[in-house]
């Protein structure tokens, strides 16, 4: 029987890449995307629920029952944001989401996308690294069946995915001629590999819980996921 997954952040580059892989995977039977605004996608596997404020996840508690995994891909850049605001935008919504999700699906696999350089000790001088580390720790220690912190660095967009950050897209345009070469590096991943690794984390659990690009690439290649 196929797995049922929840995806957040499907309007962004990472979330969209994960969504695309789930929709074509034989291992995934249902996908629930939870977003602040509609992604305007239609597919037989796909269901969408809109939630403006993720700290109010309890209002859709009935909608999130019975799922096997959650791929939490929602996030924003910390540039120009105070630690108080970044904590309110990053940690608090994830904490609320995690708390409610655990009450209805404690045997779920929870994958959280943070980023390379995240600090698990929560003592880094870099603000975002502390907040992301605190967020990772909360999820990993919650008690789910399994949980992973994905820490990608450079991600090459594939299958039409685009970043919501304009200057990222400008860089990708400049780098596009070099994509074939860059993809050969074990330290660079792609939206496709990241999505495949997410799916494989449900089927082939591993001991490592903090996954950098090379680990994401290895997990994506454990088996053919489609």
Automatic annotation (TrEMBL):
<dbReference type="InterPro" id="IPR036291">
    <property type="entry name" value="NAD(P)-bd_dom_sf"/>
</dbReference>
<protein>
    <submittedName>
        <fullName>Epimerase</fullName>
    </submittedName>
</protein>
């Amino acid at each position: 029987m196929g797995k049922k997954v929840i995806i957040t952040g499907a309007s962004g580059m990472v979330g969209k890449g994960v969504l695309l892989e789930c929709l074509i995977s034989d291992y995934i039977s249902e996908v629930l995307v939870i977003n602040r605004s509609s992604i305007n996608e239609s597919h037989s596997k796909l269901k969408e629920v809109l939630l403006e404020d993720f700290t109010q996840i309890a209002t859709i508690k009935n909608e999130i029952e019975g799922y096997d995994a959650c791929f939490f891909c929602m996030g924003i850049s910390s540039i120009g944001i105070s630690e108080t605001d970044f904590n309110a935008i990053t940690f608090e919504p994830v904490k609320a989401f995690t708390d409610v999700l655990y009450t209805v699906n404690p045997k779920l696999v929870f994958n959280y996308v943070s980023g390379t350089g995240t600090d698990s000790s929560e003592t880094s001088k870099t603000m975002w690294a502390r907040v992301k580390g605190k967020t990772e720790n909360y999820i990993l220690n919650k008690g789910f069946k399994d949980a992973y912190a994905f820490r990608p660095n450079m991600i090459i967009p594939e299958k039409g995915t685009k970043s919501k950050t304009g200057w990222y897209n400008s860089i990708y345009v400049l780098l596009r001629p070099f994509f074939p070469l860059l993809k050969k590096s074990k330290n660079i991943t792609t939206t496709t590999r990241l999505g495949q690794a997410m799916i494989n984390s449900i089927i082939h659990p591993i001991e490592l819980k903090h996954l950098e690009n090379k680990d994401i690439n290895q997990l994506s290649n454990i088996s053919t996921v489609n």
